[in-house]
Fold these 2 entries.
Entry 1:
Amino acid sequence: MKNKALKAFKAFLLMLPLCFAEVAWSLAEVESRSDRSPQQNWSNQASEGEQNTSLSTLQKIEYLQREMMELRGKLEEQGYQLQQVQEQNKKLYMDLDKRLRDSPTAAKAAGTSSTAQSEQGLDLNAASRFVSEEPDPGLKTSTINAATMPANAVNDEKAYQTAYRLLQNRDFDGAVKAFNVMLEQSPQGKYAPNAHYWLGEIHLTKGNLEKAAEDFNVVYRQYPQHPKAADSLLKLGYVEYKKGQWKRSKELLNQVKSQYPGTTSAQLADSRLQRMQQEGHI
């Protein structure tokens, strides 16, 4: 019995180093893993962080690229619109310039006798050809000058010439100011209807339809016998046309034809009515 116990104890002693070795190896493995884990974890976290940062940067770049494309599109659209506005303004100014060049003929057709005025000696150059009132027939050519004219008439004449000269030189803003100053100083003067008419033309050309209508209405309603009354009524029809008020435009244009038959204004009114019919507005 003792021999068996002794043999078992010897066997236990023999196995004990192996157990210690196994435990030591396990502890070493655990220590090794514990030493490596923080580094590996940090490396993995760093890698994930770099990936997230790269993804975020790419997303920002794509967003900025989209923004740039949208801005470029808006710039191109605005550039096109600006070009259209410039072309439209150019056409409007050319149209006004043509009316200025043709105005002596139009004034003659409307009943203004520029020849009679020049024969009477009233030298008002281009601007004077649109004045409806004739100089006093009792005054001779040699006697009509600044000395024989009333001071206020001389001032009105000079103010009108100054404003109209600005208009001829295409200084539309300057002409508007000059005409308005003249009207403030002499609202019922000899040249008032002409000033209102040209103010209306400028406003119509620049697209200020309400202001244009105001000035044309002054000429037509307050000076119905003036040579520019027919043209003013015609332009009122044009204003309503530009506003898209086809019915009102038709009424005004027909009114031109009935009130001023056989005139250039009546012919122009008829042409615009035909155009409106072709466009399907009436």
Entry 2:
Amino acid sequence: MEILSTILLESASAFWTFLAIAVFGFVFIIASAVFGDIFEHGDIGHDMDGHDGEGHGGPSILSSRVLSVFVTAFGSFGAIGSHLDYGLGLSLVMGFGGGVIFAAVIYFFAWFLYSQQASSVFRTGDLKGRTGQVSVAIPKGGVGQVRCTLGDTAIEKIARSVDGGGIAENTLVKVEDIVGETVLVRRAE
């Protein structure tokens, strides 16, 4: 009888421990949503790859939301396994498996949302070889303005003609080179 009560006590202790882990993860999700999204206090997380100055590469597997979902699912599935008397080992495996699956779902959903975002970031070098239209006439030996389109974004740049000649407004031109923030253009053929 003493062995049975010890097993039941250990089982109950494991159940409540898993349940406490699940509650902690859930409270962290709610706090993250309230303070991070509503009050804009930021997100806690860590990124595993380097930054090369080209912008952020997407959601991190170590973001607070992914980790808190893992913790919540780990505790929940562990508590279910413990409640069904599967033993501590199998309950841990169930918790870990459930945590990985649910965290992966959240991560891939966040990645899907991130991939749907449009970017208005461009480099001036992206204009080289593009065709544009003169929006402000380029006088002989002077500067004017050219409008080029990259994706859905119209970009206005200061422009000079390659040969130093004048180019009338509304003329189609091709960007030959870029010097600083000025594009060198010639009439498009």
